[in-house]
Specification:
The complex is a heterodimer.
Chain A: E1 5-6, H1 8-21, E2 29-34, E3 39-44, H2 52-72, E4 80-84, E5 89-94, E6 99-105, H3 111-131
Antiparallel strand pairs in A: 2-3, 2-6, 4-5, 5-6
Helix pairs in contact in A: 1-3
Chain B: E1 3-5, E2 10-18, H1 25-35, E3 45-48, E4 54-67, E5 70-78, H2 86-93, E6 98-104, H3 110-125, E7 136-141, H4 155-162, E8 170-173, H5 181-200
Parallel strand pairs in B: 2-5, 2-6, 6-7, 7-8
Antiparallel strand pairs in B: 1-2, 3-4, 4-5
Classes of the chains: A alpha+beta, B alpha/beta.
The complex binds guanosine-5'-triphosphate and magnesium ion (MG).
The site of magnesium ion has 4 residues of chain B, from helix 1.
Amino acid sequence: MNYGIVSQEQLEQIDTILSDKLIKLGVDCVIIIDMAGNIITAKDNGESKYDVYSFAALAAGNFATVDAMAKLVGEQEFSLLFHKGQDSNIHFSKIDDELLLISMFGKEISLGFLRLNVVDVIEKIRQLWNKK
Amino acid sequence: MSFINLKEKVVQVKIVYYGPGRCGKTTNLEYINKTYRKQIVSEMVSLKTHGDRTLFFDFLPFDMGKIKGYDIKIQLYTVPGQVKYNATRKLVLRGVDGIVFVADAMAKQREKNIRSLNQLHENLQSYKESIFKIPLVMQYNKVDLKEHGIPILTTDVLQKDLNSRLKVPHFEASAITGYNVAATLKKIISSTVISIQKKLL
Ligand SMILES: Nc1nc2c(ncn2[C@@H]2O[C@H](COP(=O)(O)OP(=O)(O)OP(=O)(O)O)[C@@H](O)[C@H]2O)c(=O)[nH]1
Ligand SMILES: [Mg+2]
């Protein structure tokens, strides 16, 4: 897979998947980033305005740190990461070795429900890439 | 590795300021941050210790405008220079497109510059990148100290120590006064963009 350049068609398909499967369910914001901290795509519900570039840099650093810690304790990886706040939560999930899916959501959505949908989204994105 | 979004015509470029502890990497970014407000869309992010040493990285997004119809977004990072932080230094280098090596021109830092450059070489190898291939600019920082009677290395010595094999562009600079900070930045951006343009064609 050449993730460095994603075609317009691929991005549109990914955006549709993110909208249908996450934003429509009430997720505030979804970002796909690579491990270098670049943004592949970002979708939100139109209300939340995050500084997505800084967010991506910090998120990549955060995930990389946790990943390095996993190796230190002899784990292959901690493929899932979750931060819980008063009003908003952040969920990280690995798509593959290079890509991360990050969802920001409020208290209306349960973690279990979100996870189910994230698994589904990741599966669909992988299929999309494998077609190439 | 840069990320090119063909749909929105955006290219994201990652440039990392690398060098030994206290050589002035963060000071470079701080100067850029206060001098180019118009091109900077968001706040500089600094993950640092109480003593103002970089703990993980500084991050500053910088808008370059358009090249061939593509919006160029430069992401500037610094690494933590302290010896003990190599694990995090390596994480910051992931996916790097261009590097500024900031050397400390103070005479007593001579060994540290060399060691840091050698480690950069090793760290890049761990990502299957080569220090001989990646866009790289040398900055010999703190030349202002000469006026204060502090012994500094001449550019000839620094060139011999650090740049005799690499032969990359180099600048004397003073990050604290801003001398050649912009020149260094412009050079690394142009070298990096040229190397990325090949992908756009
Ligand atoms: N005289 C002089 N001092 C400088 C210059 N650049 C940086 N300094 C000083 O050197 C010290 C360290 O600068 P930083 O920019 O924090 O160094 P750093 O490379 O980010 O250090 P780490 O984060 O530990 O890796 C600070 O006290 C700066 O004010 C310079 O050009 N001239
Ligand atoms: Mg610093």
